[in-house]
Design a protein that fits this description.
Oligomer: heterodimer
Shape of chain A: globular
Structural class of chain A: mainly beta
Number of helices of chain B: 0
Number of strands of chain A: 10
Shape of chain B: globular
Largest sheet of chain B: 6 strands, mixed
Order of helices and strands of chain B: EEEEEEEEEEE
Order of helices and strands of chain A: EEEEEEEEEE
Radius of gyration of chain B: 14 Å
Largest interface: A-B, 23 and 24 residues
């Protein structure tokens, strides 16, 4: 079956602009996660959705970052007024009933 | 909260040799420990995981061991091949806790020389 998909694969934007990143999780997976990976670094947790529960936003670095998950499936991560330090690969994952997390290919964001 | 340390940060081995990557964690309540392989330009791929009710798990050339008392776990790759070259990440999670996310180590860049 299809894995986690993310779009766009690459996004170049100017400082101060807003961007939206999309994640389509594996069908049937109720949990969805967003992580950020800076160049040569590990994965930094951003936000976690589980079913209809309130999302865990404890990893969001600032109030410029927000995310939604509509209908328990597709999720959008929005970064407002982008800054150069927001440049990174943004990874989405969904987890199976066995709690194994499967990652998408990521969106590489470059803020000029 | 949980903190995961991973070492070495880089590892170079000859094809056919074994490679070992080690991780330690701080939260004794963590009970799930996956390992991911990330190739250049791709997302992390789950290669093996272990839960706290077992001490060792093996899948062909890769194996993971867990020592709950010492709070460390290791990835072992035998008979390494050039295609094993990638960055490997360990992670930990407490499935009984309030946080659902994985806490990752900083990664090990493995290079297998032919």
């Amino acid at each position: 079956g299809a894995g986690v998909s993310q779009s766009p694969s690459n996004k170049v934007t100017e400082k101060g602009k807003d961007v939206e990143l999309r994640c389509d999780p594996i069908s049937g997976h109720t949990a969805l996660y967003w992580y950020r990976q800076s160049l040569g670094q590990g994965l930094e947790f951003l936000i976690y959705f589980q079913g209809n529960s309130a999302p865990d936003k404890s990893g969001l670095p600032s109030d410029r970052f927000s995310a939604e998950r509509t209908g328990g499936s597709v999720s959008t991560l929005t970064i407002q007024r982008t800054q150069q330090e927001d440049s990174a690969v943004y990874l989405c994952a969904s987890s199976s009933p066995k709690n194994e997390q499967f990652f998408g290919p990521g969106t590489r964001l470059t803020v000029l | 909260g949980e903190n995961v340390e991973q070492h070495p940060s880089t590892l170079s081995v000859q094809e056919g040799d074994s490679a070992v990557i080690k991780c330690t964690y701080s939260d004794s309540a963590s009970n799930y420990f996956p390992w991911y392989k990330q190739e250049l330009g791709k997302g992390p791929q789950l290669i093996i995981d272990i839960r706290s009710n077992v001490g060792e798990k093996k899948d062909q050339r890769i194996a993971v061991t867990l020592n709950k008392t010492a709070k460390h776990f290791s990835l072992h790759i035998t008979e390494t091949q050039p295609e094993d070259s990638a960055v490997y990440f360990c992670a930990a999670r407490n499935y009984g806790g309030s946080q659902g996310n994985l806490i990752f180590g900083k990664g090990t860049k493995l290079s297998v020389k032919p």
